[in-house]
Automatic annotation (TrEMBL):
Pfam family, one: PPR_2
Keyword Repeat annotated: yes
UniProt repeat feature PPR, residue ranges: 131-165, 200-234, 235-269, 270-304, 305-339, 340-374, 375-409, 410-447
Keyword field: Repeat
UniProt family annotation: Belongs to the PPR family. P subfamily.
Lineage summary: Eukaryota, Viridiplantae, Streptophyta, Embryophyta, Tracheophyta
Tagged with keyword tRNA processing: no
Superkingdom of this protein's organism: Eukaryota
Protein name (database record): Pentacotripeptide-repeat region of PRORP domain-containing protein
PANTHER family assigned: OS03G0856100 PROTEIN (PTHR47447), PENTACOTRIPEPTIDE-REPEAT REGION OF PRORP DOMAIN-CONTAINING PROTEIN (PTHR47447:SF28)
PROSITE patterns named in the record: PPR
Organism expressing this protein natively: Malus baccata
Length: 545
């Protein structure tokens, strides 16, 4: 068992929170729950203890186990990178290309571009890449951060990193730009390089989809004309893109006429086409027509997919009644279809919206019975609706079950719960808010200034205090963490805070150590008050400058 294996790796007096029940890590590939146990261990351990545990010779690390653990920690960026860096110095394990790609993705999501490019350089030094997938991740993260020009520059510089551009990488950058609703920029890039990379049907479909995403269907049609002129035949995917574009733009009449033209031209209409129609008509409230299309689909011998049922269940929940959605759900199961997490999430959201919370919980239990574990979105929906209904205790119970299972809370989970703690204005609720804030920081999340100040003011009013773990301050003071709520003018606010409080220039090293230890001995309330005071002092100083 892991608990026995860790005995030799952990310190003599470990913190109770580090000792979690877990299976052995000595098998390969990993057991489905091993990554979950590892993720919880990483979140609860300080760097020193974690280093000793992760470097334990009893753990047989594999690329598969590391990748799964990084995926588990995707919403816990700083902790995920800490895990990756510690394991990068393991004497008997070397990260794979896929693990580096996961780490690059996490660094990009945190907008920690210095770490991102350091990882890329390390990949190249170890001859693990970077490859096309790495650059797809990097460009996507730059575009998501509102830096499309930087993403294009990265694409144009791929060859400098030993990864020459080709048609696939060209289509990837176009797709990244289009999905971020940067169709204009994608089209300009497309016009410049379509000759060099010999743009194919996929390239044109990507740009057409980009125009449709921003509801510019005439531009998409114009592009299809160009496509035909260049001797490329539109595919069924092309027609499905246009059909979806019409529905997205609210052009319901045009969408139906386009579908009839597809049938007239004897296009081989598939399940994607019918799913688009079901969803499109349902969204605008034409439930009868959506159901008619669904029945026609079955009559034509086209078997509905799980996605088709998901679309129908979603529109019934939103525009009709949950009871009718239940009928469709049970019909789906009786025909041998296996509901996926999207099916359950859509259905549970519908039940919550109709106020049927107990039934929503029953379906969460049913998910587990169907070996379809609830994800963070499932839990967040139920927690949010319980909070909105004033059922705070039930929301906390769901949150507790979440922590005991294989699903880790994310930033939204904590924000919803902390906000709910101020509704009843009870001292015990404000105390819970303070504990949630501490747990949130312990897990690598940083509250916004508003959330931080709100919790602090609540604790000041109640006069209560909560003991704070040393690891909490370690996270708050970490130089790799950005956007602290009590920082100065931006950047690495944790480092700024440490410089102002613990590394004061008027103190000798021995005095600084004593001062830091004094801080670590203070209770939670005192620390929060002094953090706020010094943070506002720094902010005012920067504003004066």
């Amino acid at each position: 068992m892991l608990a026995q294996q860790l005995k030799t790796a952990a310190p003599k007096n470990p913190k109770p929170s580090f000792l979690i029940p877990c299976r052995s890590f000595t098998t390969s590939p990993s057991h489905p729950s091993q990554d979950s146990h590892l993720a919880n261990l990483i979140l609860k351990s300080d760097p020193q203890t974690l280093t000793q545990i992760l470097h334990s010779p009893q753990i047989d690390w594999t690329s598969d186990l590391v990748d799964k653990t990084l995926k588990r920690l995707w919403n816990h960026g700083p902790k995920a990178l800490q895990f990756f860096r510690i394991l990068d110095h393991h004497p008997n394990y070397t990260h794979s290309c896929s693990s580096f790609d996961h780490a690059v993705d996490i660094a990009g999501r945190l907008r920690d571009y210095k770490s991102l490019w350091t990882l890329v350089a390390r990949m190249r030094a170890r001859r693990l890449g970077p490859g096309p997938r790495t650059f797809a991740i990097i460009t996507e993260r730059y575009v998501a951060a509102g830096k499309p020009d930087r993403a294009v520059k990265v694409f144009l510089s791929m060859h400098e990193h030993g990864c020459p551009q080709d048609l696939n990488s060209f289509n990837t950058i176009l797709d990244v730009l289009c999905k971020a609703k940067r169709a204009e920029k994608a089209y300009n890039l497309f016009k410049v390089f379509r000759g060099r990379f010999k743009a194919d049907c996929v390239s044109y479909n990507i740009i057409a989809n980009g125009w449709c995403l921003i509801k510019r269907t005439p531009k998409a049609l114009e592009l299809l004309g160009e496509m035909v002129e260049r001797g490329l035949d539109p595919s069924l995917t092309t027609f499905n893109i246009m059909l979806k574009g019409y529905f997205r733009a609210g052009q319901i009449k045009e969408a139906w006429e386009f579908f009839l033209q597809m049938k007239k031209r004897k296009c081989e209409i598939d399940v994607v086409t019918y799913t688009t129609l079901v969803h499109g008509f349902g969204v605008v409230g034409e439930i009868k027509k959506a159901r008619k299309v669904f029945d026609e689909m079955v009559g034509e011998g086209v078997l509905p997919s799980v996605a088709t049922y998901n679309a129908l269940i979603q529109v019934l929940c939103k525009k009709d009644s949950v009871e009718n959605a239940v009928v469709v759900f049970e019909e789906m199961v009786s025909k041998g279809y296996v509901p996926n997490v999207t099916t359950y999430n859509v259905f549970i959201r519908g039940l919550c919206h109709s106020g049927n919370m107990d039934r929503a919980l029953e379906f969460m239990d049913r998910m587990k019975g169907d070996e379809c574990d609830p994800n963070v979105q499932t839990y967040n929906v139920v927690i949010r609706y319980f909070c909105d209904a004033g059922e705070i205790e039930k929301a906390l119970n769901v949150f507790e079950k979440m922590g005991c299972g294989d699903c880790l809370p994310n930033l939204d989970t904590y924000n919803v719960l902390i906000s709910a703690m101020f509704v009843r204005k009870k001292p015990e609720d404000l105390l819970v808010a303070g504990k949630l804030l501490i747990e949130m920081v312990d897990r690598g999340f940083l509250p916004r200034r508003f959330t931080f100040n709100r919790v602090l003011d609540g604790l000041l009013l109640t006069g209560v205090s909560v003991p704070v773990e040393v690891s909490t301050l370690d996270v708050l003071l970490s130089p790799c963490v950005e956007d602290l709520p009590f920082g100065g003018s931006g950047g690495h606010s944790g480092a700024l805070f440490e410089r102002e409080i613990f590394l004061a220039p008027d103190l000798r090293p021995s005095q600084r150590a004593v001062k830091k230890q004094d801080w670590l001995n203070k209770d939670h309330l005192t620390i929060l008050v002094e953090m706020k005071y010094h943070g506002e002092r720094n902010l005012n100083k920067n504003n004066r400058l």
